[in-house]
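User: two proteins, same treatment. go.

Assistant:
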Amino acid sequence: MSTLPRPTKSTLTPAGVSFFESRPVSDFDAGINSSTAWTQANPSTSLSDDEPEDDEEETGQPARALYNFEGKVEFRELTVEAGDELEILKEEVGDGWSLVRLDKNGEVGLLPQTYYTFTSDFVTSPTLEMPPFTRRREPSAQSITPRGSPKGEKETLLIIPQHTGEWFPSFRQSLLGGKSLNRFSSFVTSGAEEWVLKGSSSDSVPPRSAEDDNSDGEDEGSNRLSRVGMGEADRHFVDVGPAWKTKVPPFRVLVHSPSKRTSSLSGAYTIYSVTSLFHPTAQQDAQDDEAPSGSPMRITVHRRFSHFVVLHTALTRRLPGIALPPLPEKQYAGRFSDDFVEARRGDLERYICRIARHPIARYAEVLTFFLGCESDLEWKKQLPYHLSLPPAGPSFYAHVFHPAFNLDAEDAADAVERFDAHTRSVGKGVQSLRNIFGRVREARTEMSKAERLLSYSLLSLITSKPLASAPMTGISEQDEEDNSRVRGLLNDDNAWCWRDSCQECLKLTKAVQKTSETLQNVADLYDDHARRTQLATHEALKSVAHPSSMYAGVIETHRSTLSRYNTIVSSPPADEEVAARCETVLNTTMAEMETYHTQKLEDFRTIVTDHLDGEIAFYEQVLARLKATRRTFDSPQYEAGADSPRQPSMYERELENPRLTAKPLPQPCPHVYDSAPMRPVSAAIQEGVGMIFGVSSVGRASVFGKFWRP
């Protein structure tokens, strides 16, 4: 079997040079494409559903189209003809695209930089003729997306990410089942292709000023996090396996105590407490006098949904080579209902816990900042720095270090096929499990209804009061009316007997009444178990759903890199430097596959054990109540029933109107990658899309327009 060659160049940081000063520079914008460039070019796009949008009109520079270009509406691309006058609103929005306004109709959209030139660049030439020509663009699957055409020197605009990279995530997630509208492969957008072909030799991280370093000790939270081992945030190591080397021990994150706040600028919003629990090592525990020995260190900060968006955006841009969990989608209606706030809290906790569990993401600089910055003033001061960090692109792979000959090419090809098939199978199985579990919860509510009906029937029997809507098998209406006139249904002690002062029937009546009341308690337990305990398990199943979609980029990058490597080694003389860089990418993707394997073991073990523990606790409560009721039929409790007359049960009043209709079961919020019907807030989103495109109705401006028709 062929083995990948050993790298010939060291990628270690030179001695005496700080890590931030030695980071490579790359103009490759990882993760930005024609579908996501729109949000990068619109800084007015809100960070979250809590904040208003700014409708301020943008102005740009005049330009003219060089070629005919037929854009695709679903990707917000313009259709232009050669010679059309344009206004360039944003020259660089990523991957060679610009945000452009067409002067003849005012339509705004995306256009490749190579298809226009600024008007000031034209030179008058009476002999110059432009023949009709339409350039055909091919999907960039084999090469880097072309850069801009030659133009005059212009000031580069700094694009601050304001979004997760999706201009309407609920559309992409629910209508397309989580599939990206990106025309470019993950091999391109992650920077892996540029790294394989060119490497990375320049710094991509802007230097931080002395003011940003916070030498005064104001950033106490970050300093506290540094004591538990946070550091070397951009240097990643792969052990034999391949598997990521753990540099920071795992820690737990809780999202809790949601509360509603109001701001004069952004209106009402929900804020969550985020508590990180670190279990210090023996050495740290000996040096730390703030907490008793063995107790975890706690850091609590307050974050809103828009802050999680900032975290997700920064992680996506700085860690393009790993599979990050999707951020919960936005909510445009009912954001402050108790059910939604609790569901959002659980989704955010699962999201941040998966980030903290990843061996690479959990020591990312932006995560340290997110979890450790306790000062609102310091948060606002440091946030622009993290927002302005450019995508890592190929520099991410330049900072991945691994042993030489750490994997075999044939094994790598076999592993990715098996991994792809396995994740697809797991996704289908989990989706089926989620559906079945929903039916199990419904069955518990039906069991609650059955237990309650049985309770009412027993109570109706011993009190001789009819149960409304209950089937009276074998008894006609006339017989029922005649029986109601008969004396002797209950005696003077309110016992189920025609004889007065019958102590034996009094004891039996009280014991059966106790049984009826216990069955009501059991019915309540069934209903509560389905609504709370099983709902938590149902929600937890989302954390293991759709692994194929989550790791699609890793699989695609792995296959493309392996294909490039096979091409290199099969055409002598082989370029050992390119082959070595292929080895780095493959070590990264194989380490991600190993991370999934580890997390899958933890996830399913936790989900199943939590389910079993919940079932055991539920049945123990039911069993305890049934055993206590069974003892009422034995001495001395049974004999004590004759000491006093029977008191009416609190449930007798419900016989005329039994509680057999329960509220609908709360369902888990849809997973980001779920294929689901359009949410009932479509009208509000449609209006927002119309505002983006500057039209009153979506109509032609959106591929999703047909879904808005009643």
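Protein 2:
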Amino acid sequence: MTRVVILAEKPSQAKAYAEAFTVQQKTKTYIQLKPDATFPNGAIITWGVGHLVELKEPHDYKPEWKRWKLEQLPIVPDRFLEKVSKGKWDQFKEVKRLFQQADVLVNAADVDREGSNIFYSILRLTGVKGKPIQRLWINSLEKEEVKKGFQNLRDNEQDLRMFDEAKARQISDWMVGINASRLFTVLLQKKGFGSYLSIGRVQSPTVYLIYQRHKEIENFKPEPFYQIEGQFKAEAGTYKGLAEIKEKDKAKVQALMDKHGLKEKEGTPGIVQKVDKKTKHIKSPKLHSLSTLQSVANRRWKYTPSQTLKTMQKLYEKRLVSYPRTDCNFITNSEFNYLVNNLDGYQKAMDVSFTPVSTKPNKRYVNSSKVQEHYAIIPTKTVPTQKKLEGLSREERNIYNEVMATTLAMFHGDYVYEETTIWTHVQELPFKTTGRRDVKQGWKELFPKPSKANQEKDPLLPNVQNGEQVGANLHIKESMTKPPKPYTEGQLINMMKTCGKLVDDEEDVEILKEVEGLGTEATRSSIIETIKAQKYISVRKNNVYVTNKGIMLCESIEGTLLSSPSMTAKWESYLKKIGSGEGSKQVFIKQTSQFIEKLIQETPGLIENVNIRDTGEKKKSWNEPIAKCPACQTGTVMDRYKFYACSEYKKNCSVAFPKRLAGKSLTPNMIKTLCEKKRTKVLKGFKSKGKKSFSTALVLDEEYKIKFDFAEKAGSKI
């Protein structure tokens, strides 16, 4: 009997797989499937909880590496090891037991390098070796696709290469983060910096690009410029036009007016010299990758990139859309065929009706050669019922409608408009006027109408004729140059993807194009969330601003490769080579080590000229006294990093208090109150083992242990 054990990335994914088969038994840690045609002896699906294991921390290798000291750098273990992530030990033990009992293992984590990393990192830590491994490779969680995927499992050759790529990325990011963060922080703290800097291979150049925009805005000096504007009155209505001159010097504009014998505000006759009308066709937008969807959602609904990804993940798990973390805008003929078959159903779901212009594949959207691991984001074969659509949250409905509309647009007609250019001559000085008129909405009728603020700026023009005489009032128009605008979060995603435009070196530009900029489709939103959490940027009214802390980071890394998108692009390019079997994980890690050595040598000189700024953060000081020890009365209770304890803790006093109790963080003020008054007021936010919230006062018993006191009434004071 062949025992098959399948590892999903997380419980929701495991549940979706199980629903494609018949379940025999469900437990907290795995789902057992009944025997069927796909699994003649049944199968067991277990799961990680995202990353069930992680790289060890520096102090896990050497206790002295816990302290941030320059003389300990570089911190590079001889061999990088994993450990079980905090709070995930029970699940890991079950996965290990199931792996040990299995005859065949199936990696059914997400089809990307991190999915490979999750599976093989867990496998490595279990110590299980020599068992055949197969790979599930699907883009949809629909029952039919799941079954088909398990019936056509791949070997793990590519999976192992992707694991090498992911592990090289993970180890190198660990090395850069640990060493660079400590190096810059300690050097700046010697200059009086009261906080710490977190530095990363991708997050730091991202902050630096935002900082560059900040500098452009800060250094911008508005300048006036002058144009000649004409207000024209024709028989069919009025319109405006501009002469083709734009000068900083008003005298030059006035000279042109004088040359043609023109005066401001004077009613001078003009003549319509030429009316040029062109009909233009705009094809429907390309199918969505994650980043294009994030940009649209941010522009239209102000959703953050992270919010869009989370919403897409929910829709994916509800089997309504294909795999969300894709960087591809194309589909293959296979997907196109099922879309054609479901066109009527999709239109009914969207409450729209149109006759498809064509049901033949168009290379603008359908191109198998452009599809690698994942195709573009499209609806699945599952056409949702009205009840299912009504059950979606507002965010889910908005995002689903956008995916559906973009997909249906592929079958709709072009958006057609007429562009009109009027040339009006006044005393032989030509004025140009442009405007547009919608001819056919085409695919645009599938999308929400833009707000007035976002509508086309080109005005609707009156119907004028060649040779028609018009009244003209002219004036010299003064305008001011405007600074660049801050990035929005949606633009930040695009900026990360296309930062090659900001790089001068042609070779680097090509590499950035190849790897599509900073980060990957799956990680960009989390990078933005990370630099927000580190307080390097703030977001106000959807605009991204660099903070004092972010400015100080950028001033510190300026001139190093840590500020350069090119560095991370070259790394990403080599990582891709590891994934394709052309590069070596060992070479990559060695190069990272050499980079860190160089950084340690060069940074002290660079830091000398950095101005220390007030970041509004307080430096965390461990071992600061909180209260007199209630037991020994000679020591003081202190923050000991992972717990609170008496300063005599290692000598003759055993008083210690946890940092967290029943799911709630205990603050230094709470500990101080307990030490001095033996009782707190009623506190909210505790959670029972059954995850139910409760409130209670805390008391210190005779053995100096913290106990709950439910008798204390809510709201009572100490």
